[in-house]
Amino acid sequence: MGQARQEFRYSVNFDEAPDDIDVVGGKGLGLIRLVRSGVPTAPGFIVTTRAFTEFLRRSDLDKVVREVMESIDGKLSPEDGSRVIAERIVSTEIPAEIAEEVRILYRDLCRRSVESDLCRVAVRSSAVAEDLKEASFAGQHDTFLNVVGFENVIDSIKRCWASLFNARALVYRRAKNISEDKGLAMAVVVQLMADPRSSGVTFTVNPLDNDPSVIVIESIWGLGEYLVRGVITPDRFVIDKRSLAVVEKFIANKDKELVYDPESRVNVERKVPESMAREPSISDTEARNIASIALKLEELLGAPVDIEWAIDSKGNIYVLQVRPVTGLEKREGEKRGRRKTVFKGLAASPGIAIGRARVLRDIGDARAKGFSKGDVLVTTMTDPDWVPIMRIASAIVTERGGVTSHAAITARELGVPAVVGVQGIMEAISDGDLLKVDGFRGVIEVIDSQESQLDVGSTSNGAVSVSSVSLGSVGLERSSGAFEALYIPTATKIYMNLGEPEAIDRYLDLPFDGIGLMRIEFVISSWVGYHPVYLIKQGKQEFFVEKLASGISMVASKIAPRPVVVRFSDFKSNEYRKLVGGDDFEPDERNPMLGWRGASRYIHPLYEDAFRLELRAIKKVREEMGLKNVWVMIPMVRTLWEAERVISILSDEGLRSSRDFKIWAMAEIPSVALLIDEFSRYFDGFSIGSNDLTQMILGIDRDSDLLSSMGYFDERDEAVLRAMRLIIRGAKRNGRTVSICGQAPSQYPEIVEFLVREGIDSISVNPDAVINTRRLVASVEKKLILESLGNIGRKARSGRKI
Q1: DSSP annotation of 2
Q2: Residue 460 CB: number of other CB atoms within 10 A?
């Protein structure tokens, strides 16, 4: 059989084909290079240009083609000329020796692949002028899918040849100034077809803006024809070339797919189940694997490439074709001399704002003093020291950090649009640039000089901010009872997270049942400003107690009798050090995130007296100011003996658990989940800190924008969900309250349903998520009631006891 193949004149297997575009055409040459480079692709063979030329010559069709081509735009239109040529080609018999080679190669392909003389193949055009840098001919020539049987393969080959002369291809060749000598040569690729679970295309340069630093992947369910034809909006993944991290992801609603029907032997449209329609058609891992293959091909061809691929039901990736990306030279010429104007990061806080960039390296930057209301803060990363500036910024952009970073959490709480993890933004823009920050999509645009003359708002500083947490954004005027219609009764309490006391006025009408997390770090950094141990050394303990009590009472008094759960200070050592006098009392830790913070700090001799100041502030609010709705929460509880020691200190200061005073612990360490029964002896309730819990369970730095963009930081991971389940069920088993105050419920509706189904008592979210969370919880609770009634009905019908 091998000897026979060597004598073939008109057809050749992929692995034996010459590296000659004049013989195998553009698409064929690309597939040959795939095979030789080890890139996974489906097997097949090529009917060479020699076969096409011989077919035309022996049938005298070459003369017919020439006469018709000369008559186009004279006696004949391109459409009429195309029709004449196509009819003659399809009705003419292929020379016997050419047909015999195709028969043998098709039979051998089927036997090798499916152990049968019949198999499904794709028959694709491979013109010599196809898939070139100057012209891709994408969509100009025909492809036939799911072709079964030798006779049908022969018919499809002739139809591919005929498509060389279709009207759109003729017009395209003329528009690209491709000579007829070069343009009128076509090979045909015959390639085994698998049943693709997913299909897609990949570009190793962003086809929209020529950005060479990313890879763009578009994918859909089923066959790729619906993507090429534009029937379905595809999922879109943007991959960073250096790290292969997924830096942008858009998941479309793919409600239908094109699949092969073995009974009718044709492609049929099928409805995609609702559970799949909005699910990614490829996983992040598959996207990175496809990107890795695309990079290999780009290196092989020495230019940006466009590839088509498919993934079968077993997860095997097959590259179907590869070609250079077209049109780059023109677009590069248009862009030459212009700097990049659009940047992409992680959407951290919803809203859109326009304002002047203020690029600040650190809070000590001299320009920080000149920061004006409405400016856009652009910095590397924020911590509590930045809050005074963040409060007056129209938007916040950081070079580092993920969606649970300080910048992201604080921006959502303040209602300020924010984009985080924008790599290189500090060097790419200049102080004073006019920026448009889109916190919905995670996009920052530098508005050029012409656009900068536009009226950007009526405010005196020239900034306009549209925030999703403003009352106007939900279509309601602030008036008495305006939000009552939004207060949907739910068994699960909906609490709100808060850090800045003054912000409570903006959110009083939101339908929340209390404050599930009041952070006091803002009060300490902005209202106090001094390290508490420094104040003790100066004899100014009461200054600290008064300021902290004032901040807490500001909130508690305005929402009473609803509870306010005050979390004791959770600064890390590097953050404490920035307070006045902090250098003298804080260690230099290599990993403050996992260091001296939370309960471990409170029980240490170097800080215990400072912790007692926080307790005295709580006692002052409750006893002197009469605000009995203030409860407390201990963060970063790691061990049982630590819990026992903290409770002892509280008791020593006169703060003991009672009917109207509850002591909670943050459940953010795996040890709490594993020992929930034991920890329940010390606390009245727990609040799941999903940010730190995810970090600890999965071993991830939650401030790593790289890992976040790669999808590692995901509260929906099964390990994290199991830990949450242990905490909820264990707390309920011991008669303890259980809540959650991390970012997970604000981001993922499926986690809200999981929590409600598990029986959580309350969910605490940022202000911008309160309304939607309440609606979602109400919907889930209604679903549970209906499911319960359905079960009762089924039992009643079956005669079983209810």
Answers
A1: H
A2: 9
- Return the biggest CA–CA distance within the chain: 107
In this prediction the pTM is 0.50
Paired with 492 in beta bridges are none
Let me know: does 50 contact 64? Beta carbons within 8 Å: no
Whether residue 687 contacts residue 516, with contact meaning beta carbons closer than 8 Å, is answered with yes
CB 303, CB 325: distance < 8 Å? yes
Strands 351-360, 376-379: pairing kind: parallel
Domains present along the chain, CATH in parentheses: 2-192 (3.30.1490.20), 196-325 (3.30.470.20), 342-468 (3.50.30.10), 490-788 (3.20.20.60)
- Higher pLDDT: 699 or 340? It is 699
> Judging by DSSP bridges, how do beta strands 351-360 and 434-438 pair with one another?
antiparallel
Residue (of 232, 227, 239, 147) closest to 191 by Cα position: 147
Q: Is residue 295 within 8 Å of residue 316, measured between CB atoms?
A: no
Rounded Cα distance, 705 and 423, in Å: 9
Task: Report the distance separating Cα 411 and Cα 382, nearest Å.
Answer: 10
Confidence of residue 94 (pLDDT cuts 50, 70, 90): very high
Q: Kindly list the catalytic residues.
A: 406, 741
Write out the two tokens for 521.
């770090």
Please say whether the beta carbons of 357 and 439 come within 8 A: no
Query: Strand pairing partners for 400?
Result: none
- In tens, the pLDDT along 239-258 reads 988 888 888 888 888 889 99
Which residue bears the tokens 């043998």? Answer: 104
| Amino acid letter for position 598 | G
